[in-house]
Amino acid sequence: MDKELAQKLMEIKGECRGITIKTDWDYIFRIKGREGVKKIEEKMAELGYPLKYEEIKTMDFYPIGYDAISILLIKEIFNFTEKDLENMGREETKSSLFFRLLIRYLISLKTFAKEVPKTWKKHYTIGDLEISEIDEKNKYAVLKLKDFSLHPEFCQILKGYFAETLKILTGASEVICKETKCTFKGDSEHEFYLTWK
Questions:
Q1: CA nearest 67: which of 126, 28, 16, 6?
Q2: What is the tens place of the pLDDT at every residue in 57-69?
Q3: Are residues 71 and 127 in the same domain?
């Protein structure tokens, strides 16, 4: 990660709530301790976008570039693979405010599907997330994310996040999430295909 890439990411239009950044840093704090978080803080400052873990206000909005830079630094500093990022997304599901807000509506998968777009909008000022298909009998669901292109690494976190959410919702023993469309591969939207058993 260099200053040029950081500046490019900061030019992405849109904002995210501090909770989206804090949740990633919380995960690093759990597995790498305060020293791990300090490494991210130092690198953010070097790039010209200082941010302190304890000062992130969870309900305030931040330029969405901070989220992208943070994710890329986590990958770089801790040598995370795509699978590691996916696992991070899975772990974050268990502790994030985003998930806790969704859990209130867990009467059924159909009710959950109706609440997903509203909950996304509470956390991001760009993008539209929807569950376009749910087939409980054949155990699959399709999620679409439109008008949102942060960075390909963010897709890995979403895969883990969506898979773990559906696992908790359905009580499944396993959920597999595949990104079948991606704006970074020339598609007009992101599409995630989830199956469970």
A1: 16
A2: 999 999 999 999 9
A3: no
12 and 60 both lie in a single domain: yes
CA gap 28, 36 in Å, rounded: 6
Contact residues for 157 (Cβ-Cβ < 8 A; gap 6+) = 24, 71, 85, 86, 88, 89, 92
Q: How far from 33 is each of 5, 27, 38, CA to CA, in Å? A: 27, 9, 9
Domain contains 158: yes
Q: For residue 181, what pLDDT band results from cuts at 50, 70 and 90?
A: very high
What CA–CA distances, in Å, run from 108 to 100, 115, 130, 155, 193? 15, 11, 16, 26, 19
Ramachandran sector of residue 186 (left: φ over 0; alpha: ψ -120 to 50; beta: rest): left
Same-domain check for residues 10 and 62: yes
Residue 94: inside a domain: no
pTM for the predicted model, two decimal places: 0.90
Name the DSSP letter for residue 55: G
Task: Report which DSSP code applies to 63.
Answer: E
Query: Do 74 and 151 sit in the same domain of this protein?
Result: no
How far apart are alpha carbons 69 and 10 in whole angstroms? 8
**In the numeric block, which tokens belong to residue 20?**
């989206």
> Is the domain of 111 the same as that of 54?
no
Does residue 144 lie within any of the structural domains? Answer: yes
Is residue 139 included in any domain, yes or no? Answer: yes
pLDDT tens, position by position, 109-165: 777 788 889 889 999 999 999 999 999 999 999 999 999 999 999 999 999 999 988
